[in-house]
Amino acid sequence: MTETITANERTAVGQKVVNQPDGPGLRVGKRGEISGICKFTPDGARLFRERLPQFQAEAAYWEDRVGTVHDFRMFAFDNDTRFIFTIVYDGDFKPYIVDLINAGAPWFNALFLGVWEGFKGAHDPGLSEWDL
Questions:
Q1: pLDDT single digits (tens) 70-83
Q2: 30-65 burial, b if ≥16 CB within 10 A, otherwise e?
Q3: Residue (of 34, 63, 39) closest to 128 by Cα position
Protein backbone atom coordinates (compact mmCIF):
# COMPACT_ATOMS: atom_id res chain seq x y z
CA MET A 1 0.00 0.00 0.00
CA THR A 2 1.30 3.43 -0.88
CA GLU A 3 1.41 6.27 1.60
CA THR A 4 0.99 8.87 -1.12
CA ILE A 5 -2.52 10.23 -1.43
CA THR A 6 -3.59 11.76 -4.70
CA ALA A 7 -5.51 14.97 -4.13
CA ASN A 8 -8.86 15.03 -5.90
CA GLU A 9 -12.47 16.09 -5.29
CA ARG A 10 -13.05 13.09 -3.01
CA THR A 11 -10.02 13.71 -0.80
CA ALA A 12 -10.80 17.44 -0.60
CA VAL A 13 -13.72 16.69 1.71
CA GLY A 14 -11.85 14.09 3.77
CA GLN A 15 -11.90 14.25 7.53
CA LYS A 16 -8.71 15.14 9.34
CA VAL A 17 -7.74 12.84 12.21
CA VAL A 18 -5.70 14.56 14.94
CA ASN A 19 -4.47 13.68 18.43
CA GLN A 20 -6.62 14.61 21.40
CA PRO A 21 -5.30 17.90 22.82
CA ASP A 22 -5.61 16.82 26.46
CA GLY A 23 -5.03 13.08 26.65
CA PRO A 24 -4.69 9.81 24.75
CA GLY A 25 -6.75 8.96 21.71
CA LEU A 26 -7.69 10.57 18.45
CA ARG A 27 -10.42 12.87 17.23
CA VAL A 28 -12.22 13.83 14.05
CA GLY A 29 -13.80 17.25 14.43
CA LYS A 30 -15.28 17.26 17.95
CA ARG A 31 -15.62 13.46 18.11
CA GLY A 32 -12.98 11.81 20.26
CA GLU A 33 -12.03 8.15 20.21
CA ILE A 34 -10.16 5.98 22.66
CA SER A 35 -9.40 2.28 22.43
CA GLY A 36 -7.67 -0.09 24.80
CA ILE A 37 -6.64 -3.69 25.14
CA CYS A 38 -7.00 -5.04 28.67
CA LYS A 39 -6.37 -8.34 30.43
CA PHE A 40 -9.16 -10.33 32.01
CA THR A 41 -8.72 -11.59 35.54
CA PRO A 42 -8.54 -15.42 35.69
CA ASP A 43 -12.35 -15.65 35.94
CA GLY A 44 -12.97 -12.34 34.16
CA ALA A 45 -14.30 -13.59 30.82
CA ARG A 46 -16.98 -15.66 32.52
CA LEU A 47 -17.96 -12.74 34.79
CA PHE A 48 -17.96 -10.39 31.81
CA ARG A 49 -20.44 -12.59 29.92
CA GLU A 50 -22.55 -13.02 33.04
CA ARG A 51 -22.73 -9.26 33.71
CA LEU A 52 -23.02 -8.04 30.12
CA PRO A 53 -26.82 -8.42 29.76
CA GLN A 54 -27.41 -6.16 32.79
CA PHE A 55 -24.78 -3.69 31.57
CA GLN A 56 -26.51 -3.48 28.18
CA ALA A 57 -29.98 -3.23 29.72
CA GLU A 58 -28.85 -0.21 31.77
CA ALA A 59 -26.91 1.48 28.94
CA ALA A 60 -29.52 4.11 28.02
CA TYR A 61 -29.95 5.12 31.68
CA TRP A 62 -26.22 5.60 32.26
CA GLU A 63 -25.40 7.08 28.85
CA ASP A 64 -27.95 9.85 29.47
CA ARG A 65 -26.11 10.71 32.69
CA VAL A 66 -22.63 10.58 31.18
CA GLY A 67 -23.91 12.65 28.27
CA THR A 68 -20.86 12.48 26.01
CA VAL A 69 -20.81 8.87 24.84
CA HIS A 70 -21.78 8.07 21.27
CA ASP A 71 -20.61 4.53 20.77
CA PHE A 72 -19.07 1.97 23.13
CA ARG A 73 -17.97 -1.46 21.91
CA MET A 74 -16.03 -4.25 23.56
CA PHE A 75 -15.27 -7.87 22.88
CA ALA A 76 -13.21 -10.74 24.26
CA PHE A 77 -10.39 -12.33 22.28
CA ASP A 78 -7.18 -14.32 22.64
CA ASN A 79 -8.88 -17.37 24.17
CA ASP A 80 -10.76 -15.18 26.67
CA THR A 81 -7.59 -13.73 28.20
CA ARG A 82 -8.02 -10.16 26.92
CA PHE A 83 -10.67 -7.73 25.73
CA ILE A 84 -10.73 -4.66 23.52
CA PHE A 85 -12.87 -1.60 24.13
CA THR A 86 -13.46 1.33 21.80
CA ILE A 87 -15.41 4.43 22.73
CA VAL A 88 -16.40 7.37 20.52
CA TYR A 89 -17.53 10.50 22.38
CA ASP A 90 -18.01 14.26 22.02
CA GLY A 91 -15.29 16.67 22.94
CA ASP A 92 -12.04 16.41 24.82
CA PHE A 93 -10.62 13.47 26.75
CA LYS A 94 -10.42 14.96 30.27
CA PRO A 95 -14.05 16.17 30.43
CA TYR A 96 -15.15 12.77 29.14
CA ILE A 97 -13.21 10.92 31.86
CA VAL A 98 -14.64 13.29 34.48
CA ASP A 99 -18.15 12.54 33.17
CA LEU A 100 -17.48 8.80 33.35
CA ILE A 101 -16.16 9.00 36.90
CA ASN A 102 -18.80 11.39 38.23
CA ALA A 103 -21.85 10.00 36.45
CA GLY A 104 -21.11 6.46 35.32
CA ALA A 105 -18.90 4.95 38.03
CA PRO A 106 -21.54 2.54 39.41
CA TRP A 107 -22.25 1.25 35.89
CA PHE A 108 -18.61 0.63 35.01
CA ASN A 109 -17.78 -0.78 38.44
CA ALA A 110 -20.64 -3.29 38.13
CA LEU A 111 -19.16 -4.61 34.90
CA PHE A 112 -15.40 -4.30 35.40
CA LEU A 113 -14.59 -4.96 39.07
CA GLY A 114 -13.17 -8.46 39.21
CA VAL A 115 -13.21 -8.69 35.41
CA TRP A 116 -10.51 -6.27 34.24
CA GLU A 117 -7.09 -7.08 35.65
CA GLY A 118 -5.77 -3.99 37.42
CA PHE A 119 -9.11 -2.14 37.49
CA LYS A 120 -9.49 -0.74 41.01
CA GLY A 121 -12.76 1.06 40.42
CA ALA A 122 -13.84 4.08 38.43
CA HIS A 123 -12.71 6.48 41.17
CA ASP A 124 -9.12 5.18 41.09
CA PRO A 125 -6.88 8.18 40.23
CA GLY A 126 -4.81 5.92 37.96
CA LEU A 127 -7.76 5.49 35.60
CA SER A 128 -7.61 9.04 34.32
CA GLU A 129 -3.86 8.68 33.88
CA TRP A 130 -4.25 5.28 32.13
CA ASP A 131 -1.89 3.86 34.72
CA LEU A 132 -3.63 0.52 35.28
A1: 788 999 999 999 99
A2: eebbbeeebebbeebbebbeebeeebeeeeeebbee
A3: 34
Angle at alpha carbon of residue 105, lines to 20 and 62, rounded to 5°: 85
Q: pLDDT per residue over 26-71, tens digit each?
A: 788 788 888 889 999 999 999 999 999 999 999 889 888 887 767 8
Q: Which domains does the chain have, with CATH numbers?
A: 20-127 (3.30.70.100)
Describe the strand order of the beta sheet including 82-90 as a list of residue ranges: 17-19, 26-28, 31-39, 82-90, 69-77
For residue 70, which amino acid is it? Answer: H
Residue 54 makes CB contacts below 8 A (sequence gap 6+) with: 110
Angle subtended by helix axes 44-57 and 93-112, to nearest 10: 110
Query: 116: pLDDT confidence band, cut at 50, 70 and 90?
Result: very high
Instruction: Tell me which amino acid residue 35 is.
Output: S
